[in-house]
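Quick illustration, no need to memorize.
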Amino acid sequence: MNFECCQHEAVHRKPQPYRHGELVVVIDCSDLARSADFWAQVLGYVPDGPAVGPYQGLIPADGQGVQVLLQQVPERKHGKNRLHLDLRTPDFDAEVGRVVGLGASLLTSQPLQEYGWRWHILGDPDGNEFCVIQPPDSYRPVGTGPA
């Protein structure tokens, strides 16, 4: 994916609020363009304008929701992340295959399971962990009502 054009200009921004401001998730990376391409494709996000120095913002294509801010840093990742993203999906195998096809590394050889939840741990191109997770059949997101 090439981000030369500013797709964001046509998108009306509606940030994800929290009680005292706006929620943004920041992900450290070593290669800003590579990480922007990877996360934009994984999440279906678009650039929030051109990169500014070591920063590239990504927003949902419809402009509503949590911004992901990529931050290029000189040091390599060391150890386990203390915070990570979960990509919850009903189509577990297809989503794992899709994100691996986009450049993620599978860090677990078999899915992990606990309390009806099933997941794989993956790494982005910089090794930052994230999970693809399938909720149990009984899980209903807030506001969806009974099946």
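Residues 85-134 form a domain with the 2,3-Dihydroxybiphenyl 1,2-Dioxygenase; domain 1 fold (CATH 3.10.180.10).
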